[in-house]
Structure formats: structure tokens, C-alpha cells
Design goal:
The chain is of the alpha+beta class and 466 residues long. It is 39% helix and 21% strand. A six-stranded mixed β-sheet has the order 11-18-17-15-12-13, sandwiched between helices.
Length: 466
């Protein structure tokens, strides 16, 4: 058994290795940083909060992970027994909110050294708007959005347990090590892995997808002229700079409820509705029935997976060929069925998927069929914990790390204040402009609301109406 400093050492999982797929192409290593804050409109006992953070470290194994490399460059990980590093307190009183947020953005743009240091940072913060709480920075190889939310919620529940008599002690987290052992067993040549590989190989071999641009077919046409291949179906969706920003659009509580009610009535997920809206937008703009979008899969179906922390996201292209004569609701059902089928095989290595696709359809480096990626994050802080505090206001904020290797990545999340939806577009500044995003968001909403209000209309009719 391989050990380091007395701790058992484990290889990285495919979900962790997937991040190296784009890290190696980025000159800015902070591309893997995720920065967020959770603040509450309550005066906090900072000593009790610090004790709660330390206890949350003990309860969340993924917060105690260390990376180490062999001389040959192979990467491994292990979990230390205890975190005793100091937890900093920063008081932004006297600053503006813009200055405070600029500081936290600066923190988010400092990459982690990979070698045997904590891959996260927690700072207790007092903000100028009278809110208090914590800022959390994590490396994406160690945490995803769901595990970030899980940890933040654990800290607050532990704090509330200490401070309020009627708040119960939170249920235990699950073992991070136990989950990566299961992942590594799957990846070691299991029968399930072979079945999943056969599924994706067959999917890839069916036919070649086609690229759809945010403003239409201009980019693909330009690539065709540049290459001299009038039948080229792939294009570049990135710029020569990884400099990035996050632009957020807010959907209010009432229209969000209308979308959620539709999903409940027709037994589909919001991810299906978002994919339908996005693919119909690209169909409208490009005139293609064939649309592909990268879709992230959280791989947290079980309670143990939900509460184990770490990073479990696998991302695959989600392709649909839906003609304009199809009813909106029938297209939604097709997306649901295809999504469910993909979920059953989602443990497969995404890097292996893209490697095989590039063999079947060899294109120039950097060319792709997908103009964007989508993640929907259903987990909210309202699920349990903070809802017990009555009318106390609280809010979350996500901070850009300033870099991305993707042209456009949309993350849709529920706001803690009212459970409305935030559409967070992380994008390369030189690849996609805010004006283009405003246009996309406007039509995405029009398509989703027109379709949910008239589910028996055809896709073509909805495209004409919006």
C-alpha cells in the first residue's frame, strides 16, 4: 500500500483528471479556482464561527485533501487527519461593497500550489452592507459547486446548533475516501466501464454533429473558407485569450415558479427545460435541427454521493436532432429520455470520450461542435438549515477567477434570497460579449415561457412567435 506521511495515497479520479484537460492549455492556472461568499444579516460570534469552521473541516474529508506528485509526474492525493491552520478574519467596514468584492475577486485569482498544501481557503468576513459570514475559495479538482454549497451549509448549521436551542445537530457528512475508492474500482477495467464505453462509442459513431454559433452560422462559414473544406462541421468557439468575466442575469421569483411548476406537472427536470430552450435558440439562429451543447452531470444520485464532497462532475456533449414540426412537449420528453440514458453511463471518462470522438472525426486542434456548456445546480441553502432561522436575510456571491478555457459556460442556480434563478455566464471576454449574452438570455427566456405556456405548439411555431 502506497503511503505518504503515514496516510494512504490514492490516484486521482477521472473527474479530477478532467480538469487537467483544459488546465494544460491555460497560461493562467487560477482557471481552476472557485470563489464564493455566504453572508447573513446577523451579528455573528466570530469565535463560535471559527469553531464551527474547524468542526466542518473535521466532518468534510475533502477539505483536508493534499495533492502530491511522483518524480515521474504521476499525481496522487491523501487526506490528512486534522486542519489546524489559522482562519483569517477580514473586516470590510469603512470600504464600499465594490471595494470589498474587488478584494475577494483578487483572492479568487491566486492559484493554489499543487504540492501538499490545503486546496481551499476560508476567510471570515464582515461586509460594508451589514452582512457577516464567510468567503470560500476552492480548487475545482477538489470541489464542485454542490460540495461548496454542502460545506457552507454545514458550517452554518454547526454555528446555528451552537447558538440556537431549537436547531438540531446536523447529520453527518459522507466519506470522500469511500466514494473515490468506488470511482477508482470502476475505472480499473470494470464491466460497467466497458458497457459505458460501448454506449458512448456507438453514440459518437452514429453521425457527425455540426457547430451552431451564438449569432448564427458566420463562424462556421469562416472556418470552412479558411480550411478550404465546404463540408466542415466543426469550428473554434474560443479566442486567443483566456481572460474571462462572469455576467449574471436574474430571473425573478414568480416567473421562476412558473418554470418549476411546469417541470413538476410534466415530470421533467429544469435541466431538460434549459437544454430545450438553449437548443431551440441555436436552432433559430442557425437554421439547423441538429444542435449540440456540453452538459455537466453532477454524478450525485445517492445521499452518500451528495454529502461526500469532492468534485464529481463529468461533462459530455448533449446532442439533439429535433425538427421544427415536433411539439414542444414531445421534444422535452425526448430530451428527458436521452438525459436519463446518458445518466446511466455518466461514470465514463469524459477525456476518453473526446479522445475517441477526435479519432472518428479528426478536426484541427481547438475545433468543436459545441458553442457552450450548461450546468444547473438544484441544491440550495433553503433546502434545510437556514430556513430554520425565519426571516433572517442571507445571500451568496460568486467571484470570477478571471480566466476560462471555454468560450461560454452557463451555470444556473437558485438565489438564496427568494429561490429565483440566477443565470451566471462565465465567458471569454474576446470570444463572447455581454451584448451577445443579453440577446441569448432574452430569447432563451422567451422560448422557455412560450413553450411552457403552449406545450402543444410545434418548435417551428415557437421560433416564429419569439
Amino acid at each position: 500500500m502506497k503511503t505518504r506521511k503515514g496516510y494512504k495515497v490514492y490516484p486521482l479520479t477521472n473527474a479530477q483528471k478532467f480538469h487537467y484537460y483544459y488546465l494544460d492549455f491555460s497560461p493562467k492556472k487560477e482557471v481552476l479556482n472557485i470563489g464564493t461568499s455566504l453572508t447573513i444579516e446577523v451579528d455573528l460570534d466570530w469565535n463560535v464561527l471559527k469553531e464551527s469552521i474547524y468542526e466542518a473541516y473535521e466532518r468534510n474529508e475533502c477539505m483536508r485533501v493534499r495533492f502530491v506528485s511522483d518524480k515521474d509526474g504521476s499525481r496522487y492525493q491523501y487526506v490528512v487527519e486534522k486542519e489546524d491552520r489559522d482562519i483569517e478574519f477580514v473586516d470590510f467596514t469603512g470600504k464600499t461593497m465594490e471595494e470589498a468584492e474587488d478584494t475577494m475577486r483578487t483572492w479568487t485569482r491566486v492559484p493554489f500550489s499543487e504540492e501538499e498544501i490545503p486546496m481551499n481557503k476560508v476567510v471570515m468576513i464582515k461586509t460594508p452592507d451589514g452582512f457577516n459570514g464567510i468567503y470560500l475559495l476552492a480548487d475545482h479538482r477538489m470541489m464542485d459547486a454542490q460540495s461548496l454549497i454542502c460545506f457552507l451549509r454545514d458550517v452554518i448549521e454547526l454555528y446555528c446548533y451552537r447558538m440556537y436551542d431549537d436547531v438540531a445537530y446536523p447529520k453527518d457528512m459522507s466519506s470522500y475516501i469511500e466514494q473515490i475508492e468506488k470511482d477508482l474500482a470502476y475505472e480499473a477495467g470494470s464491466k460497467a466501464q466497458a458497457r459505458d464505453e460501448a454506449f458512448f462509442h456507438k453514440l459518437i459513431e452514429e453521425s457527425e454533429p455540426i457547430y451552431n454559433g451564438i449569432e448564427g452560422g458566420g463562424r462556421l462559414q469562416m472556418e470552412r473558407e479558411k480550411s478550404g473544406n465546404p463540408n466542415l462541421r466543426a469550428a473554434m468557439n474560443v479566442s486567443d485569450s483566456v481572460d474571462a468575466a462572469i455576467d449574471t442575469f436574474h430571473l425573478e421569483e414568480e416567473p421562476t415558479k412558473r418554470l418549476m411548476n411546469f417541470c413538476e406537472k410534466y415530470h421533467v427536470s429544469l435541466t431538460c427545460l434549459l437544454l430545450m430552450g438553449l437548443r431551440t435558440y441555436f436552432q433559430k439562429m442557425n437554421g439547423n435541427d441538429d444542435v449540440s451543447i456540453n452538459s455537466a452531470i453532477a454524478r450525485r444520485a445517492t445521499l452518500k454521493e451528495k454529502k461526500s464532497g469532492g468534485t464529481r462532475i463529468h461533462s459530455f456533449p448533449f446532442r439533439t436532432i429535433i425538427t421544427e414540426d415536433r411539439k414542444f412537449i414531445d421534444a422535452i420528453y425526448e430530451i428527458r429520455d436521452r438525459q436519463n440514458e446518458m445518466f446511466r453511463h455518466a461514470n465514463y471518462d469524459p477525456v476518453a470520450y473526446f479522445a475517441y470522438r477526435s479519432k472518428v472525426y479528426p478536426n484541427a486542434p481547438g475545433q468543436t461542435y459545441e458553442p457552450m456548456a450548461l450546468t444547473y445546480q438544484p441544491m440550495t441553502l433553503q433546502d434545510e438549515g437556514l430556513d430554520k432561522l425565519g426571516g433572517i436575510k442571507y445571500k451568496t456571491k460568486w467571484y470570477s477567477n478571471g480566466a476560462t478555457t471555454q468560450g461560454m459556460y452557463l451555470t444556473v442556480m437558485h438565489r438564496p434570497e427568494d429561490n429565483g434563478l440566477d443565470f451566471n455566464f462565465e465567458h471569454q471576454i474576446r470570444a463572447v460579449s455581454r451584448k451577445q449574452l443579453e440577446y441569448l438570455y432574452y430569447y432563451l427566456c422567451k422560448i422557455m415561457f412560450k413553450g411552457t405556456e403552449n406545450p402543444n405548439l410545434s418548435v417551428g411555431e415557437i421560433i416564429k412567435l419569439v
